[in-house]
Structure formats: C-alpha cells, structure tokens
Amino acid sequence: WIDSYPFVRLHQPSGWYGVGSAVLGEDRIATDGPEAGHYTRVSGVEIQAYFAERMSDRFLPSGQVRFLPKTEYVDGPAGEQGGVHRIRSVFGGEETEVVVRRRLVDATWTASRVPQTYAPPFEVADGVRVVTPTELTRLGFGGDATGDGPVGGVTIVGTGKTAFDTGVWLLEQGCPPASITWIRTRDAWLNNRHYMQSGTLSDLTVEGTVGFLEALAAHDTMDEVLAELERREVILRIDPDVQPTIFRGPTISTYEVDQLRRIDDVVRLGRVLRIEPDRIVLERGEVPTPPDQVHVHCAAPGLPDGPPVPVFSDGRITVQYLTRLSMPLSSGAIARLEALDLTDEERNALCPPNFVDDTPYGYIRMLLNGLATEGAWRTHPGLKDWFASTRVNATRSRPAEADDPARQALYGRLLEAIEPAYATLDRLTPAP
User: Fold this and answer.
1) Cα separation of 369 and 72, whole Å?
2) Count of beta carbons in the 10 Å neighbourhood of residue 377
3) Which of 10, 87, 307, 332 could form a disulfide with 41 if both were Cys (CB 3.0 to 4.6 A apart)?
4) Which burial class, exposed, middle or buried, applies to 52 when counting CB atoms under 10 A from its CB (0-12, 13-18, 19+)?
5) DSSP secondary-structure letter at 117?
6) Alpha carbon of 319 to those of 108, 239, 344, 376: distances in Å?
7) Strands of 123-124's sheet, edge to edge?
8) Residue 274: helix, strand or coil by DSSP?
9) Could you tell me whether strands 285-288 and 129-131 are parallel, antiparallel, or unpaired per DSSP bridges?
10) Type and span of the H or E element at 164
11) Which of the 8 DSSP states describes residue 56?
12) Which burial class, exposed, middle or buried, applies to 129 when counting CB atoms under 10 A from its CB (0-12, 13-18, 19+)?
C-alpha cells in the first residue's frame, strides 16, 4: 500500500479488511456518487493510517511488540523450532539478531508486485516517456509540470486492476477518451462489486456465490457457465464483443465498466516488446506513438504466483490465501489455528493454500475450494465460533437475520446447488 498509486482503493468494501478487533474506515453504505447503495472502500492512504494507528496505539503500548521498520530479513536456521535470525537495517546496514522462540511468520509469499517497484517488462528507448501511475498523477495534462514538455495523449500498458483504475482516473480528471490508447494483452472476466458486499448487504455476496454454483450445476461447459454468470451480471467484461480468456478475480462496478468502454483505441497485438520514440513494437505487430505521448506502466504481475507450500511447518508459518482471495480472513484463520492445541498435520488439513491460475476454470476452482475450506471451519470445534463471529468474515452470522424467509431461501438454494456444482467442476477439470 505504501508503494501503490495515490488513487488506489480497496477492491471490496472496507468491512472485509483490517484486523478483526477494529473497523477499517466508516463501514457505511454510500448515499451518493458512483457507488451509491454499496459499502464504501477506503483509499491506500487511509489503510496506511489505520495500521499505523494500530501499531502506535495498541501493539507498541502493550509491551508485547517491537517494531523494526526499514529492515530486511537476512537469514536464520531452517526447518527447526526457534533459533536466532538476523535482520539488517536498510540505513547503514546494521544487523540485529532476533530470537524466534517458536515460529517465524513469513508473509512474503503473498507480496504483491506493483509498478512503482517493478520495472516495465519491456524495453524502453531513450527519450520515451514511460511513467508509473503514481508519476502520472504528477503530470500536468497539456502542460509541462514535470519539465518534460506537454502531454499529447496517454497510452495505458496493462490488463489488470491497475490499468482499470488508471483508465477511470484519467477519465474522471477530464482526459478526453480520444486521447487514451489502451494496450490490452488479454481481456478479463471481472467480479461485479454489487455481489461483493458486507454488513447488511452481505446476502448479495451469498447471492453472487449461489450464482456461481447454480451456473455450474445447470451447464456442462465453461463457456455456458460464464455466459450464465454474465447474464445474471455476477461477472462483467469491458468489451461485450471480445471473449475474455483470463479471470484472476478483480472486482469492478458497472460505473467503472461504463467509463472504460469510452476508450475506443484498444490495441490487442500481444505483449509489448519495446517502446521506441515513434512506435510501439508488440508480439504481433506494431502501432505508432507520437513524441508527446506518455506511456503508463500498469504491467506489473500484481498477485503472487509462486507454488503453494504448507502453511505450518517446523519453525515457520507461511501466510497464504486460503479462501476467496481474502487475506484478512485467511490470516485470521491461520492465527486462530496456531493458538489451538493441534498438530501441524491437523492445522494444514484445515488450511489448504488456495490460488488462481489466470483461467476461468482456475478462478471458479479457487472459489469452490475456498467454500470447502470454510465449510470445514464452520464445523470444527475450535474454529466454528470464531468463524461465525469474526468481523472479517463478510457473511458471518447475524442472529437478528437468521429467521428471515428470504435469507433462508437463499441458503436453501446454495445447499441445493453445491453438490452438483462440485460434480460439474470435476467433469471440467482440464487434462494434465
């Protein structure tokens, strides 16, 4: 979040995020603007402030936490309980020894890669203006606020959430759609934020999940499943005339989709190989680019794609996604399991790592695997009460709503569709 662009916001409502004991943001439903009727989402700056406050007002005063910012991990013993580990300050290189009594918690597997810290995956010739989204916000459109001359237009290079956010931000700043070129390597399926809600709107999240299950239960091919989900508006695409090939789980609103459809100059010639002063060379051709064009690097990989490893092992906890790509819920479950009197074999059985392989099948498999994991938590003696009440579970139990006929009918549909949905997924499993 420190390295992300200034206009970044959470994908989903703020209520899905943060620590279980403290609400993040106002946790309210917007009453006006493009997100009216949906729960609000905080900005990256607000997230930084939230965790800074948790550290300064709660963790450090407790006397149980020592915070060592601006340090990097050096090394330590592997495959054993406890031991001495070394960290090093990025200022001056001074090393500090840390005695780990039980386990080292390794959160690097989930580290996202963002443009500000990830070099463009293409060559850039001298004189070509390539900026990150953060640097884009410092340009004077049509002026020379950076001393680099006027900006005649903008080329967005990227396919994912950063590119979507950048396109919407440019349009909201008054950038003419005709001044924007978008190099889109592949088109993607997107989750409709309407069906990713928390609090009093959490039944919409359940409705979206039921949509996936019922689409699987009723159809025999992935194309039919996706078409049904799009018909229900559970998933969206930007270009209705292009069949998306990837699905990594980004969340977007219909407002944002409508904005992005205003950009007509979309280039689909594969990945960018290099940008020269007068042309962009791609895998399947090239397009011209004028000297006063600013190219925005939105091509960082984003989510991690490393191979999953056991969460619990001797001397180490490797934090990973377990369900619905929700890091707060996943890490909360991991912490809860570490506190229980269980063997690591029992703990790992309750938290199999979950990941997406970019394909629609991979995303839906991730969703159903996560549902199976949550199902195990709902019945486990040490987890069921925590799971039913933790703030970061978007669909947690609410006693006042338990007898609502509409909610009972919704969960009845879920139970009816879940078994045939898993059966369809097994039939759709790609051949090795």
Assistant:
1) 34
2) 22
3) 10
4) exposed
5) G
6) 8, 36, 14, 19
7) 123-124, 272-275, 279-282, 285-288
8) strand
9) unpaired
10) helix 161-172
11) I
12) buried
> Which helix or strand (DSSP H or E) is residue 312 part of?
strand 312-313
Using CB atoms within 10 Å of the CB of residue 311, give its burial: 0 to 12 exposed, 13 to 18 middle, 19+ buried.
buried
Q: 284 burial class (0-12, 13-18, 19+ CB within 10 angstroms)? A: exposed
Cα(232)–Cα(224) distance, integer angstroms:
12
d(CA 138, CA 145): 8
Q: What's the rounded Cα separation, in Å, for the pair 429 and 361?
A: 8
- Residue 203's contacts (CB-CB under 8 Å, 6 or more residues apart) are 406, 407, 410
Alpha-carbon distances, residue 120 vs 116, 124, 267, 278 (angstroms): 10, 8, 18, 18
Q: How far is residue 202's CA from residue 229's CA, in Å, rounded to a whole number?
A: 19
**Separation CA 197–CA 204 (nearest Å):** 6
CA 215, CA 424: separation in Å to the nearest integer? 10
Beta strands 95-100; 83-89: pairing state: antiparallel
* Residue linked to tokens 């090239």: 286
Do residues 81 and 315 make contact, with C-beta atoms less than 8 angstroms apart? Answer: yes
